[in-house]
Amino acid sequence: MIVVLDCRCHATTVARTVVACVGAIHRPGTTVIRNASSNYMVQDLCCFLRQLGVRIEGVGTTTLTVHGLATIDADVDYQPSEDPIEAMSLLTAGVVTHSTLTVTRIPMEFMEIELAILEQMGLQMDVSTEYRSANGVTRLADVTVHPGPLAAPFDKIHPMPFPGLNIDNLPFFALIAAIAQGRTLIHDWVYENRAIYLVELTRLGAAVQLLDPHRVSIEGPTSWSPAEVMCPPALRPAVVILLAMLATKGTSVLRNIYVINRGHQQLAERLGEIGATVETFHDQT
Length: 285
Fold this sequence. Notes:
- This protein is of the alpha+beta class.
- Helices cover 30% and strands 23% of the residues.
- The protein has 9 helices and 13 strands.
- The strands form 4 sheets. Strands 1-2-4-3 form a 4-stranded mixed beta sheet, with helices on one face.
- The protein is elongated.
């Protein structure tokens, strides 16, 4: 018997696909998951399930075929692959501060479009010989970015399902566009209203124009100025504001950073290790 599941609904497709996969592995027989997410997290899960002995076809596509098992009895030592969103945030820190910075262990198949756009904008970078992640599957490389002038891309920047630009990496390009010469259109067509939070970059001097709830136009380069900003409730725009503050001469304050702490482990401390001056504090009540 073949069961067909549909994971349609883009904003929650990753979670739906994960639940469907985990449910299917315990059901003897074949389960076909259509409109599945091809996100890096889903691929990582499939890699782990394969090591448990589950046969899964179509990994990296929008149709997964899972051949479930009556029982699973296997001992495996598995390490999740590196995070492309974390990699993009650190690369952005180097780009917007005009620094020479090396980010190691970048998952290349999940960053190829991002790196291609940066190269088109004129970013000078060195990419090491590829090697494998601890999971034995994911291709990794070390990328070193160098300071230099950037130009606005030829076309708008917008996300697409894998192997396109990751939706969670899109906000970082708003910040990079702010230091590039020319006008860039950022189209965040997936999430309702998230693009609105990118307008907060104007508080630091960026020329960001909101065209509609999904699109912003950014004119660069920016002459940054320090400011006090309330942290946006969306994780990626919040990190974008923090990184913009690193590019600003003087002292800026970002308040209510819970959302950043929820999504990044000790980000302030790690930025400090590469030369940033970031201090966290609590207001006295």
